[in-house]
TrEMBL record:
It comes from Mesorhizobium prunaredense. PANTHER family: QUINONE OXIDOREDUCTASE PIG3-RELATED, QUINONE OXIDOREDUCTASE-RELATED. This is NADPH:quinone oxidoreductase. One of its GO terms (cellular component) is cytosol. Keywords: NADP, Oxidoreductase. SUPFAM superfamilies: GroES-like (SSF50129), NAD(P)-binding Rossmann-fold domains (SSF51735). GO terms for molecular function: mRNA 3'-UTR AU-rich region binding; NADPH binding; quinone reductase (NADPH) activity; zinc ion binding. It holds the Pfam family ADH_zinc_N_2. SMART domains: PKS_ER. Residues 10-324 form the Enoyl reductase (ER) domain. InterPro entries: ADH-like_N, ER, GroES-like_sf, NAD(P)-bd_dom_sf, Quin_OxRdtase/zeta-crystal_CS.
Length: 326
């Protein structure tokens, strides 16, 4: 089978297409023919060795896929054969290998897809959907004014909709282009601002009624965080989910203390037991299948053009979910 291997760190062109043996499902596992493999921004960072952890090379990238069950290991329920499933590899004992023609996963982690849910949309609901879902579960938006950063991206586009749905009093979006702001508005944001403008934090603060936001969901990090803090209300909560790009110093933390503000970390994986994963994914799948949550597809690339998929994310051209189609 074909797979996309990373054997040295660097730009998008270090992604190589290789031939490797098709995996055999072990006892308790299923073999899945991949119809869509999700691409995530953290993989772009990982490829350039800019992520919070340095992975061991060589590795086949990809932590999520959706497809059909093609073969069963011993002791797997025969009714799973041929079914359409999501494979959240990141939660399994072999968390990588999704950019490939086939993956194997423990049968208990293969989550059935409703008929109305496409393979592409299912990939959007794994890392990105679960991140949006659990960010809001950890810091609930009901009755609060909230700021969503990178609001047209994979996580951001779902976060805007779910925060609105869960009763935020105001959802303000920030993103990097006019088209992205329009997308955030179409998804239900009450207002949207370009954070390329020097006075953006004053503008969003005004949009939040002058006092600032009750909650800021920061999935961008870097120098953006310090500017966003100017828009956080007294007693407000900054939720920090941009792993590896934490860039505030002692003076910002001291200012937060004087304003009774809190800083809350967010990391998806430690929050996911197998039961919780299946329950959250099933809930997200039903929301999309039932038309209550929209997935924005931001680019379909053939497997052998994984480098182009990475380029679109890295150059900030993508919106919503980017997928590879083997
Ligand atoms: N903590 C966790 O457990 C967890 C889990 C999943 C994802 N995340 C984080 O959530 C964030 C969003 O992930 P995603 O996969 O949905 O990506 P994404 O938002 O679809 O794509 C990345 C977006 O980030 C923005 N961005 C800001 N600065 C950038 C830069 N220097 N280079 C490239 N893009 C930049 C761009 O949007 P604009 O042009 O609008 O700025 C870009 O489109 C990532 O930071 C990811 O690491 C965290």
């Amino acid at each position: 089978m074909r797979a996309i291997q990373l054997s040295r760190f660097g730009g998008p062109d270090v992604l190589d297409i290789i031939e490797m043996p098709k995996p055999e499902p072990q006892a308790g596992e299923v073999l899945i023919r991949v119809h869509a493999a999700g691409v995530n921004f953290f993989e772009v960072l990982m490829r350039g060795d800019r992520y919070a952890v340095t992975p061991q090379l060589p590795m086949v990238l990809g932590v999520e896929a959706a497809g059909t069950v093609e073969a069963l290991g011993h002791w797997v329920d025969i009714s799973l054969a041929g079914t359409r499933v999501a494979a959240p590899l990141f939660a399994s004992k072999r968390p990588l290998g999704g950019y490939a023609d086939y993956v194997t996963i423990d049968a208990s982690l293969a989550v059935p897809l409703p008929d109305a849910l496409s393979f592409e949309d299912a990939t959007a609901l794994m890392v990105q959907g679960l991140t949006a879902f659990h960010l809001l579960r950890q810091s609930p938006p009901a009755g609060k004014s909230v700021l969503v950063t990178a609001a047209a991206g994979g996580v951001g586009s779902l976060l805007v909709q779910l925060a609105k749905r869960q009763g935020a009093s105001a959802v303000i979006a920030v993103a990097g282009s006019r088209a992205k702001l329009n997308l955030a508005l179409s998804l239900g944001a009450d207002a949207a601002f370009d954070y390329g403008m020097s006075d953006w934090s004053a503008r969003v603060r005004e949009a939040a009624g002058g006092a600032g936001f009750d909650i800021i969901y920061d999935i961008v990090g870097g120098s953006m965080t310090a500017a966003a803090l100017n828009a956080l209300a007294p007693c407000g909560e900054m939720v920090f989910a941009a792993l590896g790009r934490y860039a505030i110093g002692a003076s910002e933390l001291e200012a937060m203390i004087t304003r009774n503000q809190s800083l809350r970390g967010f990391a998806l994986l430690p929050l996911l037991s197998a039961d919780r994963l299946r329950a959250s994914l099933s809930e997200l799948f039903q929301l999309v299948a039932g038309g209550q949550l929209a997935v924005t597809q931001g680019g379909r690339y053939p497997l052998d053009q994984a480098n182009e998929a990475h380029r679109s994310l890295e150059e900030r051209r993508s919106t919503g979910k980017v997928v590879l189609i083997p």
